[in-house]
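Appendix C. Worked example: Glutaminase
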Amino acid sequence: PITEITDLSSLLLRMLTQCQPLYSSGKVADYIPALAQVAPQQAAVAVATLDGKIFSAGAAQQNFSLQSISKIFGLVMAMNRLGDGLWQRVNMEPSGQPFNSIVQLEWEKGIPRNPVINAGAILVADVLVSHYSASKTAFLTFLRRLTGEEAIYADQQVYLSELEHGNRNAALAYLMKSFGNIEAGVPQVLEHYFHQCATAINCEQLARSLLFLANRGVQPHTNEQICSRRDAHRVNAILSTSGMYDQSGEFAFKVGLPAKSGVGGAIVAIVPQFGVITAWSPPLNRFGNSVVAMQLIQQLADELGLSLF
Ligand code: GLN
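Step 2, the predicted output written as structure tokens:
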């Protein structure tokens, strides 16, 4: 049914209009003060397809904070650098806990449950800091390569705000360090992690950047092999089971696609062999997932019959 749809734009616009009453059922992230300043009543949706088309509606070229969606890019970089050794330092199981939870980290002796909760992403940041001479630049370079846009940057205000209010993430990092699972200095690791979270990007750029995950590791517009076919499969598996934190089960139940959310209000969903959907709207539910973005992706997946299950 997907291939019969030549112009998704009118469907996207209709969905966006229908979602607007939902703005008030969420709350913009305020534990990072710079994010609390973002106007709540905004939304966008974009679909990038493997054959090079982009459909969008709403503020699809408006920048937002990448936040936890940066964990996907960091993970791919670390898998490329470290190979299977990575999986001795981080697990691949859903956590069933909030994204910044610390309890399991003690039970499991400093091994994070998976690479897309905060503890896991901080571990991945350690791998990047330890294996790149300039990991922050390498991260931005990777994103610029994937989007084809030199303009991608890290928002200094968001970065400094997270650095100043990052005590929970510092606690996760120091606990892992105490178990010997962080190699570099904790301040340097946190600096990298906050920097990648502070990346400014828009819905269209983000959708395009992740097409390789829907295409067995090959970025369609450049034909470049970004990661192996096996690693693309593995990232999608992790996103399916853990990408929406302790709402991952519900998301699989209702949508059925590998996906990742961030507290900047964006959600990205991978549709293997077809493309990537991104949606953005700042108000979040109690799991830290955008209310409107969830609804947009759910409705689109439903209308187009995209569930993998
Ligand atoms: N930078 C945020 C944090 O560490 C990312 C969390 C998120 O987007 N879920 O808390």
